[in-house]
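Our consortium's second objective concerns turning raw sequence data into structural hypotheses that experimental partners can test. To show how far this objective has progressed, the report includes one record in full. It was chosen at random from the queue rather than selected for favorable results. The single chain below, 641 residues long, was entered without modification.
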Amino acid sequence: MKVYYHLVIFFFTFALSAQEISVDSLKRITTSSNDAFVVAKAHLELAKRYERIDLKEGKDYALKAFEYKSNDSLLAETNNQLGRFQFFASHLDSAAYYFENTKQLLQKLKDDKRVAIVNISLGAIQLRQGDYNKTISTLTESAQFFEKTNDSINAAKCYSNIASAFAELELFPKAIEYSEKALEIFEKLDQTQFRLITLPNLATQHYKNGDTLKAIDYNAKAEALATKLNDKRSLSMIYNNLGDLYLNKDSDLAKQYLEKTIQLKNELNLKSGIEIAQSNLGYVHLKKGNYRTAVSYFSKAAEKVKGKQLVFVYNNLSDAYKGLGNLDQALFFSEKSSRLNDSILNSENQKNFMEVQTKYETEKKEKEILQLKTENLQANYKRKQNRNLLIAALSALVFTVVLIYVLQKNAKRKRIIMEQNLTIQEQDFNQLLKSKELEGIDAILDAQEQERSKMAADLHDNLGSKVATLKLYLESYEDKDDFSSYYNKLKTLMNDTYNEIRSISKNKNFGAEINKGLIPSTKAIAKQISDTKKLNIKVHNIDVNKRIENTLEIQIFRIIQELLTNIIKHANATEAIIQFSEQNNILTIMVEDNGKGFNMQSSKTGIGLINIEQRIEKMDGEFVIDSSAGNGTTVILNIPL
C-alpha cells in the first residue's frame, strides 16, 4: 500500500504592517478606509489569517485583494496567496497558473530572490502532479541560487521538496539524506513551523525504508509539535501518516487515524491530501474484506491522485475487484497500474532524474574543490606575503641602522657648523653694537641739527611776521598825525614780539596762541596788519563750521603767517584776501594778493616757501602757487582734516 507523502510547500510572504493587527481591526479597515491600497493589503492579510482556519473564506478575501491591480508587488503576493488556496484545494493547474503570474510580476520587478522562492511552490505542484523530472530540475535550480546567496532557510525548503521527489521514486536513502539536511537547518534556525512539515516526511521515508521505529518516533515528535501549535492542517497530515504506519499492524487503529484525518480536512475545507486518506481507508476495508466499500474509497482517490500514488490505487482496485469476483475489472486496473508504473520508472526517466541530480552534486563538488583551491592559493599568498613582509622588515631595519649612522654623522657636522656660526654671529653682534653706538651718536647729532633747524624756522615764521609788521609801522610813521594812537599800537606790537622771544627762549610752543580757533586767529592777525594802512587783508569763511584739531590749526596758522610775511616783504601789495572752504573733509585755503608777482621759472625759492612745502608734505596736503610778473600771486593749500 502506498503511503501519503507529506509534500512540503513553502511560499514567500509579503511583510505587511497589518501582521500585528487583530482580525477584527483588519475587517474594520476593509469597510472604513477610503484608501484602496490599504483596503487591498487588509484583505490580503485576512486571507493569510484564514488560510489555516477556513480556506473558503480565506480565498474570498484573497479575491477581493486581487481586484487592486495598481501595485505590482502587492499583486504578486495576491497571486501567490491564491495559488496557495488552489493548491490546498487540489486544483493544481489553477495553482500553477497563479504561481506563474507571481513569477512574471517578480521578474518584472527584477526580484530574483522571490522568483527563486516561487519556484519552490511550482516544484511542489510538479511533485504532486507526478512530474518528478521537472520537480528535481526546478528545485535543484532554486537550491543552487539560495546556496550562492547564503540563504540557508530557503535552500532547506528546496532540500525538503527534493527529498519528497526521491521518495516518490522509491530512492528512500537519498530522500532521508535531503530531509535530514533540511531538518538540521530548521532546528538550527529555530523554525518550528518548518520542522513540523519536515518531521512527518522523515517519518514516512524511514517507514518506507524499513525502519518503523524511527518512523513512529518522528511522527510522535511531529504530533506533539502540531498539538502544541494547534495546527490542524499539519495534524491532519500526521494522522494520515500514522494511519498508514498501522495499516498492516493494527487496522482498527489505522482506521481511527485516517478518519481523524478526513474529519480535520473537512473542517478546514482542505481538499489537498484527502484523497490519500481515502485511499488508505480503502486499503483498511480491503484487508477486512469490505470490497465494495474499498472500491468506493479507491474510486474517489483515483480521481485526484497522480504519479506513483495512482499506481498503487490501481493495484488496490484490481485486488478489490478480484475479491468481488469481477476479473475483467481486476485485469483492467492491473494493466493500467503496470503501464503507468513503467512510464514513471522507465530507465530513461530514471536516467534523467539522476542526470539532474548528478549535475547538481558535481557542481557542488566542483564548488568545494574550487573553494579548497582558493583556500590553498590564499594560504600560499599569505606565506609569500609573510616572507615578503619579513624581507621588508629586515630591509627596513638595515635602512634604519644606516640612516641613524648617517644622521649622527650629519648631526656632528651640523654641530661643528653651528658652533662656527655662533662664533661668527657673536662677532657680527659685537660689530652691530659698535655700529649702533655710531648710529646713536649720529642720531643725537641729527636731532640737535633738526632742533636747530626747527628753532630757525619758528624764529622765521613767528618773529618774522611781527618784525615785518613793525617795519610797516615804522615806514608809515611820517604819515601819522595822531602820535599817541600810533605809539600805543607800536607798543602793543613790541610787547607781543618781546613775549614771543620769551616764549621761544623757554622752549614753549613757537606759534601764536590760537585758542579761539584758526579762522578767528587769522582774522585777528589780518586786522593787526590792516591797521598799518599799508596792506588791507580780508578774511572770508565760505563753509568751514567745525573746529580743527589744535596741533593742525597751529601748523596751518604758521603757514598763513609765513605767506603774509612774504606778501609784506616781497609783494608790494596793497590788498590781500584769505579764503577758507571745506569739502569732503578737505580744508582749502586760498591766499591771494594784488602785488607785483614773480616769474616762477626764473625766481629762486626762498626759505619761507621751502618751510611751507615741508609742512604741507608732513600733513599729506597739496601746495599750489600761481604767479606771474605784474599780476600778483595766488597760493592754494589743500589739507586733509
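The partners drew two points from this record. The longest strand covers residues 575-583. Residues 347-475 form the longest helix (129 residues). Both points have been shared with the crystallography group to help prioritize constructs.
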